[in-house]
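Tokens for chain A. Residues wanted.
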């Protein structure tokens, strides 16, 4: 933990004694065991300190935010990773980016943890065959939408329902976490688009191939899954902490995903520019 955060061991012990933070697991022997989440929370405290907060105020703010269950991947990433910039993207671009991430995962044959947020069941059904193929080699695959009930279809992702007031009903989610492949996407639909044609909808979008950020996104998704499926959430968390993604492939992943996205958008542009076929009267 000292190496990960730059804090001296004595400082970590002092913070734990005076502020009850961090909160490592204690083995029967008394040894401390820290999780990736503990590392992230400590880094957040250091960020708050760099903004001028006292140690107590920084710890209180981070602990309070960490104790609140997340209800949105987009909001959770913005709060925990303020360095991430949101970009305005049309639906065609979001689809292209999603497909690029999914296709690259398939090519690499990685056993990933997968989360997908589809807002509406009908939109998931359009991609169901694609996600069945992704689920075949995945360690876990979970999709969230306005399903009428939770289901675990054979050879397919677990389907978990969202109620009408759930913030995820406005959110597009894709998280892929594997040892040599990490990518995540969170896009929230801009308000006031009820009358807008589906292909022309706009989204504020966050995406990353940084393993630490993807790991954080996967843990946020576990919090979202915990509401309808607490046991499944615990199983996935355990797997994520046991088999984290590594950072030595992130530049390769970024280049591959970007190239695929550009190819998808180019193909879509060519199809859109073709003149309509003439019909004989």
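Reply:
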């Amino acid at each position: 933990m000292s190496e990960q955060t730059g804090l001296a061991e004595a400082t970590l012990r002092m913070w734990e004694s005076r502020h009850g933070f961090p909160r490592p697991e204690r083995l029967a022997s008394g040894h401390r065991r820290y999780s990736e989440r503990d590392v992230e929370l400590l880094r957040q405290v250091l960020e708050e300190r760099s903004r001028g907060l006292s140690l107590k105020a920084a710890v209180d703010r981070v602990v309070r935010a960490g104790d609140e269950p997340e209800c949105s991947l987009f909001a959770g990433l913005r709060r925990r990773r303020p360095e991430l910039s949101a970009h305005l993207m049309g639906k065609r671009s979001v689809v292209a980016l999603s497909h690029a991430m999914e296709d690259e995962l398939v090519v690499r044959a990685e056993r990933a943890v997968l989360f997908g947020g589809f807002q509406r069941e009908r939109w998931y059904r359009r991609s169901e065959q694609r996600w069945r193929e992704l689920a075949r080699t995945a360690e876990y695959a979970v999709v969230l939408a306005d399903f009428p009930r939770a289901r675990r279809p054979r050879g397919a992702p677990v389907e978990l329902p969202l109620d009408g007031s759930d913030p995820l009903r406005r959110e597009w989610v894709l998280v892929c976490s594997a040892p040599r492949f990490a990518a995540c996407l969170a896009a929230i639909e801009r308000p006031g688009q009820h009358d807008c044609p589906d292909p022309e909808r706009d989204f504020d979008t966050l995406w990353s191939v940084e393993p630490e950020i993807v790991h954080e996104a996967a843990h946020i998704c576990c919090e979202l899954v915990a509401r309808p499926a607490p046991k499944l959430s615990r199983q996935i968390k355990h797997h994520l902490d046991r088999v984290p993604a590594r950072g030595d492939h992130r530049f390769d992943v970024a280049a591959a995903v970007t190239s695929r996205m550009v190819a998808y958008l180019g193909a879509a542009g060519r199809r859109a520019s073709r003149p309509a076929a003439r019909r004989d009267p």
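The mean pLDDT is 88. The CA atoms of residues 28 and 234 lie 22 Å apart.
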